[in-house]
Every structure is written in C-alpha cells, then in structure tokens.
Write a structure and sequence with these properties.
The structure is a homotetramer of 296-residue chains. Chain A contains 12 helices and 9 strands. By secondary structure, chain A is an alpha/beta fold. At the A-B interface, strand 9, helix 8, helix 9, helix 10 and helix 11 of A face strand 9, helix 8, helix 9, helix 10 and helix 11 of B. Chains A, B, C, D: Pathway: Amino-acid degradation; L-valine degradation.
C-alpha cells in the first residue's frame, strides 16, 4: 500500500522503516530534514509539508507526534491533512495525547469521510525498532479490521479498546497505574532497606507476594536487584522520567475533565514534577527512588 | 513436640488446629473462653494465663496477637512468658506488629537465653485453615532451621528474611505496596470507565501491560471483572479495609522512626482512614474503589 | 462612557448594574434572555450577539464568562468581539480562567490595536452587589490607569498585578492557597476535637497563634465556632465547593504547563473532587470538613 | 518558691533563668554537665539525677524534654520523679510530646497524689529568653490557677486548653496547620513567580486576600519579601525544618490512634521528611520552598 507517515523521531522513524520492510511504499514528512533524509535513504519518498503528504495519493496516513497541539495543527491546520485529502483515506494517529483532543479530531475526520483510529503504543524505542510494539486502538470495528495488517507490520500485540479515543484512555489509565506502581515499589524497597533488609531478598519476597507488579519484577528501581534493569546501569535507557511525567499529566487532566478523582495519580505526578525540576527528567522513570533515598 | 499457643482468633485458631493435626501436643491460652474450649475439644490442653503456658514445660511457644501492646504485655509483663520460661524455649511471634517492638522483645528474649523469631503471615483466614500460609521470618539461621518443621505444619511458603525484625519489615513493606497498588488500580479502572471504556476490556489491557499487578489480576476492584473476587460479591470476605489500614499505619510509623519518606504510602493510609470513617472498614480492601466512584 | 457588557450571571449581573448606577450607558449580551431583560429594565440596551455589542460603538467592553472556552469563542470566534470592533476599544475580561489562555487572547487583541486587561475578581456575589469587589488586574500601566475609574464603580480594591495574565496568576495562586488553608483548618479542627478539645477553644488558640489564617478566622469550617459563617447555617451561601474545585484545577493545570510542582494544591484538588463526586459541590467550600468527620 | 527544673537545653535553659530572675530558688538537672554548670552560675543548685531533684523538697517540678520516651523515663523510671516525690508536689511538663503519653503519665501522677499539667510552648528560643512564650496548658482548673504565676514568669500568653493532654492537642493541631500553611504559601509563591509575577507583589495581594496567614505575613518563605524573615538570611535561625517534621509526626501519629484522617498533614510530613533526607533539616521550616523551586 501507499502510506503517508508524519513524525520520524525516536519512535516514528523505526516504525516507518518497518513499514518499508513489509513492502509498503511510503511518503514521509518531518520538520527535521535529517530525519526525512534517513528514511529516503531507506526507500521512502519525501514530502515537504503535511499537505504534500495528503496530496500524494496515499491510501493511509499514520502520524506520530509529540503533543495534542501538534496533532491538531497537522490534522486541522490550513495546510494540514484534513483540508487536503480525499474521502476514504484511512487516518491512524499513534501519538499519545489526551482522549478529548483525539475524539475531537476523529469527529472532524469522520464528518468529511475519513475514518480515523487512535493507536498509541507501548514498548519504547526497542519495541519500535524490533516491530514488537503494543498498539492500543480506538475506533469502529470495521476500521480496526482494515488497519490491522498495517499495524501488524510495526507491532505484535494489537488491542482493540473500543470506540474512538479509547486507545488513548487505555494508554493513560495503564501508564498512570504504572507510575503509581513504580513510586510504590520505590517506597517499599527504600523502606525495607532503611529498616535493615537486603534489597534482593525483599524484592524476592515482593515478587512472590501480593505486592508483585511489573515495576518490581521487570524494572525494579533498586540498583543491583535486576542486572539488566536501568537501575543497574545508572538509570540510562528505558522510559524517561519526563515521559512518565507527561503521561501522568495527561491522565490527571483527563480526570479533571471527567470530574474523576485520582488521588495517587496526582501525587505521583507531583513527585515526578519535583524530580524533573531537580534535573533528573532524562533518567529512566525508576530513578524516582532517588527522591526517597536522599540522592535526588 | 509440646507447643504453647497464645491467641486463638480467626487466624490463630486454625493455625493451632493444624499443629494438632500434625501430631504436636498443645497447651493454649486466649482471653476468650470459647476460643480455648474449641481447641480443647480438638485435643489441646488449656492454660489460664500466659504464665501458665510458660510453666507447662513447652519446648516452643507461638503467639498470634493483635497489636504490639499485646505482644509486649504477653512477653514482658509480670505474669508474662519471659518471666516464667526456662532457657532454650523457642519463641515464635506470628503477630503483625512494628519491627521496632519486635526487635526490642527479641533482644530481651535472647538476653535471657530464649531464641526468638518474628514470623508474620500472609494468606488470610483461608490460608490459615488450609495450612497454606506464607511465613515471613526474621531471626538467626540456626533458629530458622529449628522452626522450619513447625512452621511447615501451618504454611507452605516459609521465607527467611534475615535478622530479627526482618519478617515484620518484609510484611509491612509488601503490604504497603499492596495498598498503594490497590488504590492505583482503583483509580485507573475508575478513570478508564469514566472516560468511556468497558471495565473488562481495560482490565485485560492492564493485565498484559506494564500496569499489571496482583491487585489488577487477582483481586480487581471493579465489580464484574473477576467472578470470584470480593468486588463481585459486594466486597465481602477477603482482606478487610481496616486490616489494610492497620498495616499502612505500621508502615508509615516505622518509616517515621527510620526517617524514611513514603509519600504514596501515607496518602493511601489517609484514603483508607477516610473510607473507614465512612463506616466501610469491614469491606474487602478492594472496596476503596467506591471512594473514587462516589459510592462511599 | 458607553460600555459593552457580556455575561450577566450571578456575578456579571450586579456588576453591570453598578456601572449603570455610576452613570455609564450599557449595551449588554447574555445567552439567557431573562438575564438580558433584567438589565434592560435597569436601563441597559440589549444586543443579540457578541458581534452586535462590538458594533454598537462602545468605548469599553467587559466580559464575565464561565470558562476559557467561552472567552476564546466570544473574543476570537467568527461572530466574536475582535472581528467586529474598531481599534482602540478597551477590553476587560473579568472571567477567572487560566493565565495561558488570557495571555493568548490579549496578544491577539493587542496585535489588532485593542488594549486588553485581565481583571478577575474576588468577593463573591455579595461583593458584586455591594460594589466592593477586589479586582486583580494584569496589563500595561497606561491601560490599567485608563480602566481604573470604570473598575472603581464595581469594586473598592483594584490591584495592579503586573503584565497581561498576572491578574489571573494572582487569583489562582491566592485561591490555591485558600483551598489548601481551608483543608488544613478542617483537618486541624477535626483532629483537635477528635482528641478531646472544644472547637471554640481550639479555634481561639489557632487564631492567636502561628496557625491563624483567613479560613480559621473568618470562615471557620467547624459548626458553631463562628455564628455568621456558612458552617453555622448548613454550609449554605458562601463560595461553593465546585467553584473552589474549578480554581484548584486552573492552578494545577497552569502549574503543569509551567513545570512547577504544587503537591498540596494537587491533593486539595483531589479532595474537593472526591467531595463533589459525593454530591456536595453546592455547599460552601468550608464543608470539606465533612470529609474528615465521616459526614460526607 | 522552690522549683525543680529538668532539661536545660536551648529552650529549658533560658526558661529556668527567667524563674531565677523572678526570685524562685531552683534545683536543676540535665545530663549535660555544662548545661547544669551554666545554671548553677546563675544561682541554681545542681542535682545529679531526677530522683535527686525529687528528694530536694521542691514544691513544683518543671520538665522540658525532647521526646515522650524521655518524659516516660524521667517520670516513671525506677530513679524517676514519681517514685521519689511526696504527695502534693505540682508537676508541669513543657515538653512537646503526643497527647496519649501525656495523659498516661498524668493519670499515674494524679493516682499518687500529684497534680500534673501539660504545658507545651510556642515562641522559640527567642521567646524563651525574653520570657514571652505562649503556654498551652492542659489540666484541671484549680491546678491551672496554681501554676499560673509560675508560668507567667516564663511566658506572657498562658492559655488554658481544657483537661489533661489538651495542651499537647492544641500545640500539635496548631503546628500541623502551620506546616500545611507554610507548604501552601511556598507552593503559591513558587507558582506565581514561575508564571511571571513579582514575589513582593504576589505576597502583597495574598496578605490582603483570603490566602493570608501567618506563614505569608510573618514568615514568608520567598527570599526578599520580608527583610527580617529567615528567607532573607539563608533560612538561618527560626523554627527548624526537623522540629516541624517532629510536630507533623506527632500530629499524624495522634491522628492514627484517633482514627482521624489528616490528608494534607500527612503529605506535609512526607515533604518535610524528603527535605530533611536531602540534608536540610537544620534550615528554618520556610526553606521547604526550595523543594518547589528545584533548589533542594
């Protein structure tokens, strides 16, 4: 198929490459010429604006953008996608943004004859490169079915979450819980060690008890507990604290609009904001344990 | 062996029965005569005070008491255990109390020649009856080895957590994390549903993603997600909210003495305290989701 | 002067009346015909759209609207104010909205030759009727001077807070602190009474000590402490809990964009959200004490 | 009168001096010989143990000790006060400790014929030296009347708070609110400045609005707002962050025993614990603003 792809950053770049590998032809856009050049070298055609992508007679357009503002501008701006595509072109937005903005854009797209899916991902840059991302997808059944083969070229776990916006809802609900769990594990490990336990012994007990969770088993924040976790390599790599902060912000802001209390989510957000203000936003989000050990 | 057992409540009663079943002879004490009578009927001998148990030439004494105050009084009171046993009697306290009190009592016991273990349990009344409890044990290696066959008559997972007090440390660190996780799952589920997702779909996504944890997989707080969880039977049975509140209190209080911050642990404690004040302390601790759904 | 006034609700209505009393001529708009009719009866002219107000050759336009969305639409919509006024018309927005939106609208207004002030108020419906509001004003010195006589007809304390948007900043910073203080007083009073003190005695001590604040001295949340406070009349009247919730939401959202932690502000927001979800949003914001006394 | 005084630290030392100045004769004890020597030089007699003070035929004994453990040991230990005084000796404990411990000790004292008051103070080392402390006093009316002239030699504001323990209740309720207010002011000032306001202008608005409180008016945490506040001299002097942390710990612990939620109190405690862990416990408690400005 002929696919348009906008947003060729750390995530979008490798995702686009996997589409090329799967035999699709791509027309790509990114404000950074180097990002475009790298994809062109890999076989894609370059476009110099969102409008140019839209006019390139693509059948599908995929976007991977940093914020809701970018999404709104790229889709609904004067030189944006919606003003320049014909009806029937399938739109897939893989950006992580708030569900309200997603639903607003999808409504406009649908009104002019373009089915749209929100399909945020998890799995990080590693998953993007390996084509093993999880896609959380919101939109009608038939549109989901249409998109499935394309998404399968970039990920291995494609989950239909319900109507438009529900991909975003699933993503921010899961990631809010992830942020809370990580802080919880950080507090439990720091407390246990402060009271005299060995970190590995405590982690072993937690991982076979009711406290077990992904954050304790797979990304334990205490250095030395897991050899391959970011905690054992200075918190480099992994999912950055500032990205967790962004997702917690999306969750609490969506909760505000839904008039839904999220007490621990809000406190976790404040803790990550404090940690970021101290200059640690680039560290893996498990580094939040430093705030509880006097190291931040 | 001849074993003394003090504290024959919902947990202690069935634990003592399992010791009888394993062929041990028991001398038991409890301030409630009915509790004593039930054990006597099952084959135990009755004693009318802690001192009387101590003087009954038991080789091992096990205690299962509600608070640190009870433990201090039973062990160190005038008519208590320590003043009335000979050297060499092995002491095992299975109460869940703060590690500082545990260590203080163990120090006194050891000073007069009585090795002591702290061995709090998890697994609830079901595990106590079935003999499948987990024991988290603090104390010297040799004493742990000595106690292992006895504990194995009451539980199936006997974990050595390190020196005296570490059984309590492991218990409260794990349960603090459990409380935080449960509130986190409650917030994430309530948020997702408020934003338009189906509860089962959301739970399915969380359970295969980075938000997965015991509280979402085994005891999901949203009614209808898990057929056999307390949430699907009006939050009856399970681990009561007031018990979770007690453990969160032990954790934050131990953290205070260790000068260790536990931000989410403290907020979770306040949420359970608020929930309890509204008259819900008897519901399973997953019922905290009602606070986030306007039902509490 | 000839003044346009948009938004004739509980606050805007009495404010507009005070302008009439001061001798100004008014052209007014509100989507509710009854609100318009009442002002017309008092001497104002009616307009049937924002554009109609703009075209009525007014020298000044004042807006008092519920949300940033309303402000953006009224000022920047197709049939809005900016598209229909001539240069030089002075714009004053007394809505309480986020500073970012305020600054964005003011920038557009200025670019087309219309000086604009943000001038949110405090003092409630009582102050609006009596003409004793406090105005917190953001914008250039010369524009502030120009607006001063007009604002003085509606309030008695007109404070210049600095450049555009700073009126909103002052309002949300003050009100976030107010919300935190109120919850703090509620917790301190509830704790003292739970521990055996008489509420009036405790309030007296706080009010002559370092805990003293507006919330303890003027609007003490404990029933019976202050005869004329909302707490002594079932929490009716006063500043509604849902209005406090709105302001706490504006504060935390502005903090998020500024990457500024506000830990207690965020928790206070969650407490008011929980209280609102329980159906108490219409009570005076001092009623939050019910959440701490098992009455909510 | 002949008065015994135990605990001659930063607070107790100057308080004892003021009693000497008022013409009382003193027998004093402190574990630090230098502290005793200084008072002997000023005219007091030295005792080498609490028991020795008790046996010195004093009519009144005043204690000023750091923790509840110290109070319990000094009063109820084998060589303590209660075991060695005759009936009728008036006991006044000015330590800041939890109300439960206070009430327990007072009950024992009364049972053996010694009336006892809890009389914690506020006003800091400056107030102790100047004799201008505030005393918050718990105990029976007649005993309060008896103590009044003695307390008046050390303070100028002597408040009767009700029955035994209520002095402590008033102190911790007020100081919990003080800690919450200070963090609230810190957040509001940091937020306002981050959003573009001048600190002095914002403080001025808050101090004439509903956000006003002791922490904003008298001890504003933003450097430069108040010339004579600790914030304008590197946060030296004043009331140390670790002392605030201690009082917040007493408040939340008393709340736990009373089953009383104190959400913001608990979060404020965690913030001060985090700040202390970063090595800032010696700074005035207004320095907590550094945690919100990326300076801690």
């Amino acid at each position: 198929m002929h696919i348009g792809f906008l947003g060729l950053g750390n995530m979008g770049g490798p995702m686009a490459r996997n589409l090329l590998k799967a035999g699709h032809s791509l027309t790509v856009f990114d404000p950074f010429p180097q990002a475009v050049a790298a994809l062109v070298e890999a076989g894609a055609s370059a476009a110099d604006s969102p409008a140019a992508v839209a006019k390139a007679r693509v059948e599908v357009i995929i976007t991977m953008l940093p914020t809701a503002e970018h999404v709104k501008q790229v889709y609904r701006g004067k030189d944006g996608l919606l003003a320049n595509i014909g009806p029937g072109v399938l739109l897939i937005d893989s950006s992580t943004i708030d569900p309200l903005s997603t639903r607003e854009v999808a409504k406009y797209a649908l009104a002019q004859g373009n089915p749209m899916l929100d399909a945020p991902v998890s799995g990080g840059t590693g998953g993007a490169a390996a084509g093993t991302l999880t896609f959380m997808v919101g939109g009608p059944d038939s549109v989901f079915d249409q998109a499935l083969p394309i998404l399968s070229a970039m990920g291995k776990n494609i989950v239909h979450c319900g109507a438009a916006g529900n991909g975003q809802v699933a993503k921010i609900a899961n990631n809010m819980l992830l942020g809370i769990s990580m802080v919880g594990v950080a507090e439990a490990m720091a407390l246990g060690v402060a009271l005299g336990m060995e970190a590995k012994v405590l982690a072993g007990i937690i991982n076979t008890s009711s406290g077990r969770c992904w954050s304790s088993e797979v990304n334990n924040p205490f250095p030395g507990v897991l050899e391959n976790a970011p905690a054992s390599r200075g918190y480099s790599g992994g999912f950055g604290s500032d990205l967790m902060l962004k997702d917690l912000g999306l969750a609490t802001e969506a909760a505000r609009h839904a008039r839904q209390p999220v007490a621990l989510g809000a406190v976790a957000q404040q803790l990550y904001q404090t940690f970021s203000l101290q200059g640690n936003g680039g560290l893996d989000f498990s580094a939040i344990i430093q705030l509880f050990r006097g190291e931040a």
